[in-house]
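Q: Focus on the chain.
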Amino acid sequence: MAGIVRGDHPGRARGLLAIAVTSLLWGTTGTAATFSTVGPFAIGAAALGIGGLLQAVVAIPALRGMRSRLWERRAIVAVGALAVAVYPLAFYSSMHLAGVAVGSVVSLASAPLFSGVLERVIDKRPLSRSWMLAALLGVLGSVLLCVSRLDSGPQVGVDSMVGVAVGLVAGATYATYSWASRRLMDDGVDRGAAMGAVFGVGGLLLMPVLVITGAPLISSWQNAAVGAYMALVPMFLGYLLFGYGLTKIPSSTATTVTLTEPAVATLLAVLIVGERLDAVGWTGIATIGVVLIVLALAPTGRSRTGET
């Protein structure tokens, strides 16, 4: 990917790559969850709750050094942390109610749109034509995946409708904590401190939920292994990479790149779970792949805080 962005800001290619790898890790969560008998609240609270606290632990030196600046921006930290706490509960509930494919597609396809609105309305940042094209292609590819999986016969009814609505909540909160983290970095907060504060406080907010709902996680070794994997790999490692990516590219671009997650999740469902994908689904995956190409080729003549 770095070779594609000739003459442009070199950090941008690394940021895109970091977010792409994050999407790959996040895309394993749906398949991993199928190996457990844990409910959506418990798995969400364990994954991002424990993962968020680990983010804070590794960022303790940075948090100490930035504590006064973080306190001055406590409103942004609070907004981001609340979004972190709500996101996994909404995301996994959406997949539980509407199905893994539909829930993940709605949650992730809506996030770049919410993110773009936040940057445009709050930060007054213009959105580039490259971003708008990438967002459009990402949403189109996700819809194609959704339609393809719907043809396989997921449940239809009130649960699915509620699942879609909850998925929109997940998309909005995902965009919100991404925006808050990037806003803290733009305001001079160290990356580790920004991510540690937002995800650490969010993780604390999820602890009561984990205490109330988390008993099934220790009911079997398999459930415990799934919970540990979700917390350590997609959440902890994934968000370390996500935080690095946010230092190089705007949150709207980052959330657009993570539209590759439904494609990864679908491929894993085909290869591991044994689900089938038709021509429409493969077209959706190819369309999402074009998103990365569009963003990689986009000009980067603006400042670090500007849209790329």
Notes: The two ends are 16 Å apart (CA to CA). Residues 107 and 168 are 6 Å apart (CA to CA). Residues 1-7, 301-308 have pLDDT under 50 and may be disordered.
